[in-house]
Amino acid sequence: MATPLTSPPSIEDSIPPGIRLAGAWSWRLLALSAAIAVFIFLIMQLRLIVIPLLIAVLISALLLPIVSFLSRHRWPRGLAVAVAMVGSIAVIGGLITLAAMQISRGSAGLSDRLAASIASLKDFLLTSPLQLTEEQLNSYVQDIFKALQSDSAIFVSGALSVGSSLGHLVTGLLLTLFSLLFILIDGKGIWSWIVRIFPRRARPAIDGAGRAGWVTLGNFVKVQILVATIDAIGIGAGAALLGVPMAIPIAVLVFLGSFIPIVGAVATGAVAIVIALLFNGPIIAVIMLGVVLLVQQIEGHVLQPLIMGTAVKVHPLAVVLVVAAGSLLAGIPGALFAVPIAAVLNVMTNYISSGRWRSESPSAGLVPGSPLWQTVPSRPGFRRTMEE
Questions:
Q1: Which intervals of the chain form a coiled coil (predicted)?
Q2: In this structure, what DSSP letter does residue 132 have?
Q3: Residue 363 CB neighbours (<10 A)
Q4: How many other CB atoms are there within 10 angstroms of residue 171's CB atom?
Q5: Which domain holds residue 215?
Q6: Residue 79 CB coordination number (10 Å)
Q7: Collapsing DSSP states into helix, strand and coil, what is residue 244?
Q8: Looking at the domain assignment, is residue 114 inside a domain?
Q9: 345 found inside a domain
Q10: Fewest CB within a 10 Å sphere: which of 18, 212, 326, 356?
Q11: How many angstroms separate the CA atoms of 216 and 212, rounded?
Q12: Is there a domain that residue 130 lies in?
């Protein structure tokens, strides 16, 4: 009796299961990476719109509780928004004005100090073990001037682009103010419109995740202001006690720089050390370095783990890596927005994957009769579609 012929194994059967699984994961990861790359490219191309909008969202997370507090005490909504916005602009303008006044007063003898510092540096190099001669130093200085002259076209093009940069700055400032105004006035309506973009079955998860992310963003802004204030007071007070000039501008600079977690305070603290070296000499600069390191240790080992870690739930190592990646992709704006974006995405992802939205009230905020439901337009057939 003849044995039945068996068909040869197919290609799929000849590939080990591990390779098939790796291949399936690979093309999906490549497709996901391509989508993320296109999304980041579009954001970078639209950065003049995206950056002001993100700044407005951050500021609104800080000002919205103030507006809500005033509204609960029977203030008109428009008046509460106006008071919050004007008050914040007055505080920021006051800090900048105070820093500018201190800089104008402290820069009176800056040229003399620079000349003295250059002369002392020259004397140090001449008497150092490097055994440099004055002719060599003069030759190095001439080479630097020649390099600057050869690259003068870069400076000319930069000067010509100042007008364009100033126009972009003014446009971005106006866009930030308008976005902030509308978010404070009708933030719930804007969010309800965003939720309605998604399929009806996904709206409960999207709405709950967005609300959880908004709470995290508000916690981040509040905690970051607290951390920045502590850094500014610590470094500014140290500079004032050591007699370093322009202590108030240093404190303001540290406060603004601390909004970039970990990295910002280090960079602005380096400015304080350079000013101390320039005006007070190396001994005071070394003590100022110790003050900056002490403040950074308090921030890194006390404030960040206990306060920021609890509010944002992002590991300090992840903070450093995210800030580095953001700065590489988008410079200072990327470093500024990296941590809040990562924290919000982390909370939203955990909320959706946990499935808590299934046990909560369906599409909280979009239930007919709720406050957010009142923001839905009452055009004929619109609410009926939402109720289906």
A1: none
A2: -
A3: 22
A4: 13
A5: 49-147+162-375
A6: 12
A7: coil
A8: yes
A9: yes
A10: 18
A11: 6
A12: yes
pTM: 0.69
Counting the structural domains of the chain, the total is: 1
Does residue 282 belong to any structural domain of this protein? yes
pLDDT in tens, the chain (388 residues): 455 555 666 666 677 777 888 888 888 999 998 998 898 888 888 888 888 898 899 888 888 888 888 888 888 888 888 898 888 888 888 888 887 787 777 666 666 666 676 677 677 667 766 666 777 777 776 776 666 555 444 444 444 444 456 677 788 888 988 988 888 888 888 888 899 888 888 888 888 888 888 888 888 888 888 888 888 888 888 888 888 888 888 888 888 887 776 667 777 888 888 888 777 777 888 888 888 888 877 776 676 666 666 666 677 677 778 878 887 877 778 878 888 888 888 888 888 888 777 776 544 444 444 434 443 444 444 444 444 4
d(CA 328, CA 323): 9
CA angle centred on 365, ends 361 and 368, rounded to 5°: 85
The tokens of 302 are what?
């006390």
